[in-house]
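Late entry, evening session. Most of the bench is empty. Finally got around to the prediction I had been postponing all week. Sequence below, unchanged from the version circulated by S.P.
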Amino acid sequence: MNKNTYSLMFGKEPLQFIPRSSQVTMITESFISEPVAQQIYLLTGLRGSGKTVMMNEIQHKMITKKDWIIVELSPERDMLEALASKLSSEKQLAQLFQSAGINLSFFGFGLSVHNSVPITDIETALSKMLEH
């Protein structure tokens, strides 16, 4: 019997790997082109076809780009709160949010600003964070 070529670990490159260099390059270049050609992609395919491996490859390419922040989100948590939490934990962004007077202490992110009312709505908080 032949060995199973599918990996049971998500994102782990299998023994038999089909490189998708041209697709990865096309996606990363469309994200950084001026003007931005594409803002979202949807990867679909059969189980074990390499979707997560491809996303990991795109992540590794984008993490080296200036002005890009990679945030991994899990559907196990509230995604808006997780995004705000991860953005506020980035040192440079935390300093930017403080200088902009964005008080996120209500959410327990540890980012409070003296004499500033805490933002109590996560969508408002994210809007202000992304604005700055």
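Two things to note before I forget:
Residues 21-32 form the longest helix (12 residues).
The two ends are 58 Å apart (CA to CA).
Will write this up properly tomorrow.
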